[in-house]
Amino acid sequence: MMEKTVKRGTRTGFTTGACSAAAARAAVLGLLDGTVPPTVEALLPNGQRVRFDVNDGLCDGRSAHAMVIKDAGDDPDCTDKAHLTADVLRLPGAAGEVVLLGGFGVGTVTMAGLGLAVGGPAINPVPRRNIEDNVREVGTALLASDGLQVTISVPQGLEMAKKTLNARLGILGGISILGTTGIVKPYSTAAYRASVVQGVEVAATTGSDTVVLTTGGRTEKFAMAELPGLPEPCFVQMGDFLRYALDTAVKAKLKRVVIGGMVGKLTKIAQGETITHANRAEVDTDLLAAIAASIGAPPDECAAIAAAETARFAAERMAVLGLIDAFHTALARQVVSTVMGRYPNRFRLDVLVCDFDGKKLAEATSHE
Questions:
Q1: Are 104 and 161 in contact (CB under 8 A)?
Q2: Which of 112, 218, 282, 288 is most buried as measured by Cβ atoms within 10 A of its Cβ?
Q3: pTM of the model as a whole
């Protein structure tokens, strides 16, 4: 996790999709002119035009090769500095056709639910269109007689993919080519939010009718141990994006949602926050004090909990008083009540609570 003391930059960067489209455009220009240009002005999905540096330009009349190095700006992206490479090949007699393939380091889709063809490359719909738009914009003369085959590859893609959730989503052998605008905003939550939505959509294709939403790695490990019968794609680390995860679960008609968490995030959910980021809202310690009072905690303890800054303080006081299980059960019930109030009769909800060591403390269900 980032330390709060780290100063966050504001320099924007470019998506893998935008860099792929720029490399493809440069390679097509190479086929037209006999040499691949050292820079290229490419069209982004959002309509902007941006100049990219082009590397490794090669051309032999029938095919051309170009590479753009991804600059993620100040976003701590595992695909920063990836070499987005395009090889464009003329297809004689296939006038007007643009064929897009994934080469080494671009993942292959092996599971339904991503909106991409199983067995095809993990190149998302917007980048796919953007690559083709750039190829068609400069390749009109070539396309009058020939088709163009564009193969996108990423030499470091296999290594980079290990730092992503791709394997769990059934994307194997490399990274995904992503991006809806072409621009990466620093510390963009959009990419993570999109991966949460995608994760829930994939969970819906497993046939188990269940998605298990956790707030991070530790709570996921705990939830997996509690629910060993579920296939791995049912588990989605939603981070702070509860609302997006639940809305997607409803849309996908999932019958059961399980939320696994610890006291802090669960308190945020219990108080009705659907984006649970630490900076978005304070923990409602009055709510925790009320929960403590409801299970018989003394008034002075409840007052101390209300005055505290963190939910963890409440949990620690309850432990001292021997009320830890009762407290977390009451909190889990409050989570059920709040969420079901917002999503009445949409799904069955189970809440699993663990401590900071990943040990189970309590559970509650709407199915009573």
A1: no
A2: 288
A3: 0.66
Q: Is 191 left (phi over 0), alpha (psi -120 to 50) or beta?
A: alpha
Do you know the residue count of the chain?
Answer: 368
DSSP assignment string, 73-84: TTS--TTTT-EE
Q: What are the backbone dihedrals phi and psi of residue 229, each rounded to the nearest 5 degrees, phi first? A: -80, -10
Contact 255, 349 (CB under 8 A): no
Strands 13-14 and 183-184: antiparallel
**Distance (Å) of CA 214 to CA 17, 40, 211, 222, 363:** 29, 43, 10, 9, 14
CATH 3.30.2110.10 is the classification of domain 13-184: yes
Give the chain's largest Cα–Cα span.
Answer: 84
pLDDT in tens, 190-236: 777 888 899 999 999 999 999 999 988 889 999 999 999 999 999 99
Which tokens in the block code for residue 249?
């679960």
Q: Which two tokens stand for residue 79?
A: 């695909």
The tokens for 64 are: 């051309």
Q: Which residues of the chain fall below pLDDT 50?
A: 1-8
Dihedral angle of Cα 165, 170, 176, 180, to the nearest 10 degrees: -90
- Token pair for residue 285? 């310690």
Domain boundaries, the chain: 13-184, 195-365
Cα-atom radius of gyration of the chain, to the nearest Å?
25
At residue 76, the pLDDT reads 65
Among 152, 237, 225, CA closest to 197: 237
Cα–Cα separations (whole angstroms), residue 122 to 117, 128, 193, 229:
9, 10, 18, 28
C-alpha closest to that of 235 among 212, 215, 259, 219:
212
Q: State the residue for tokens 């994006």.
A: 241
Q: Is 176 exposed, middle or buried (0-12, 13-18, 19+ CB in 10 A)?
A: buried
Contact 11, 70 (CB under 8 A): no
pLDDT of residue 215: 87
Chain Cα centroid distance, residue 131: 22
